[in-house]
Each structure stands twice: as structure tokens, then as C-alpha cells.
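[job 4471] stage=fold_predict status=RUNNING
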Amino acid sequence: MVLILVVALTTGVLLARAQTGGSGTPGAPQTSSTTQAPSTTTPSPVPVGTYQVQSTAIQLEEPVSSGGTRSLPTTVWFPANSGAGSLSPDRSHGPYPLLVFSQGYETPVDEYQGLIVDWASAGFVVAAPTYPFTDPETADESDIVNHPADLQFVITSILDESGQTRTLLSGLINSNAIGLTGQSDGGDVTLAVAANSCCRDARVKAAAVLSGAELSSFGGTYFSGSDVPLLVVQGSADTVNPSSCSAQIYNQAPSPKYYLDLLGAGHLQPYIDAGPEESIVAKVTSDFFDAELYGDAIGLSSMQKDGDVSGMAQLSDGASAPPGSGVCIGAPGT
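[job 4471] inference complete, writing C-alpha cells
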């Protein structure tokens, strides 16, 4: 196996990127024929910034019914041992919940790296695939109808990696604690797999939708028999995904549900630009997943504290979201 490692210090967190390869498919995950029983316990939740973080790149190839495969290069970030000079997951505090992050249209996964590293530093393994036709050079937004199946394949593949012996991710993931999150089109895909009859995956225990929407093009019905805990995050000044989209999601969803209103925020900045807005999103989403995946009751009170910031953000858990503006094009009923 050839390993290329780049180490950099970012906001106090050790960040590493790795690329694996060998005599088979370039970048293919190293696997063994021996499996281990999936872990069912989790460590205690910790604040953002607690763990050092490393990452590895895995090339996933999803078989399709028409023949061939769909390429899903996936980066996985994980808590790491302090001061390690090579890839070294921190297994002593694991296994950890798994978060799968879905990117926005024409927005590379690396743009969200700060937010993703924050989640991993709070005790989550975070897998982020690059979906076909989402990068600017190959963009085709109509392919989004295939992304829910892509997302489910990524979940299965990452769990398989964790269940194998002698792999980098061996034993690192709690297979009973899976959460989804995504931004913009990635939020649409996240919601479909968490709460739409078209694509619902029963392995998903919680979802955070960041400036996303319901899409009629997926088919199916939203929130029909689904009670997955949901966090909806929306910038009040977002003109790409207007607040009416997030209000529609929230108002239809059953409890438990939470709405984080980012006051005066736009569509992309709160998720890719380092600063107070990104910090609020990182803390509130981590609190939410602490509560729902770690079973940490304190996470809910932490959400309220971290989500209520004068002049910047307001968190609510009432029956209805703040009144939304704009028309949510592509959503059911529009």
C-alpha cells in the first residue's frame, strides 16, 4: 500500500489527508475476509475541538443495474491519536457515531472541510462522498435523483470497512448510531434518505438539513411514518434556497424537530467560511447529534445555549418555523 500523508495544523486540530492504493483498483479500501461483530456502544460525547483529526480517501465504485459503476470518491475524517506521525485512529475512545455529509451542487467537499473537521473533533466519524456530476467541470443537476441510492451505498460501504479486520476504519464506527447531514442539494438528498418513502433508510437515526428542501422529483411521500429526529438550519437572507423551503420541511416534520434560524445569513457562507456563523452551525449540529446518536440529554440544553446568539441565531422547537419567504421551486405543491 502506498501512503501519501500531508499534515497541517488547522484551528488547533491535526488534519491529515491520505490516499491508499495497491495492486488492485487505485484508492480501493484495504479489506480482509474476516469480519468483526458491529459495535453497539459509544463513548461519552465531547465538545467541538476535543479530538485531533485525520482523514483518509477511499474510492468507492457503486454497481448500477445498467452495468458499470458510479464512481464515489469518499473522504473519511475520524478522531485520531495525539501527535501521531501517520494515520492513527483513536480507537481507545470509540466506537463513534457515523455522520455522512452530502455536498451542495457545484461545491466541492473540500469547501466544507472546516465544518467537517469540527464534527470529527467532537467525536464523530464523518464520511463525505463526491457525487457524480456535482463538480463544476461535470455539473448536471438532474443527476440528483440518483444521489439517495449513492448515499445509501456509501453508508453500507463505510460500515463494511469498519466491520472488517486490519483496515484503517476497523471497529471505529457504532453501526447503530448513524446520522446524515448535507447542504443545499446535499440537504435535499439527506432529507430524502431520512424521511421520504422513496428512499428511506432505516439505519439513519437523525438528520440535519442545512439550507435544503423537499424535492418532488424524488417521488414518494415525505414524513409518512418517519419520525427521525430532525434539525433544520436556514439562513434568513438565503436567496438560493429561500426560507420557505426549510419552513415547509420543518412544519411537516413530526417531533422531535428543531429549527436554527441564522439571522441575516446567506446560502453558503455559514457552512464554508470560518467565523461566528460556522461556529454556531458546528456547535448546534454537534449538540444535536450528541443528543440523538450518543443519547446525551445534556446535548439538548447545549443546543439551546449554542443556538440562541443575540443578533445572529435563534433556535426553536415549536410546531411551526418562522414565516418563510420566497417560492421553493421543485418542492411538492409548487
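[job 4471] summary: The first helix runs from residue 113 to 121.
[job 4471] exit 0
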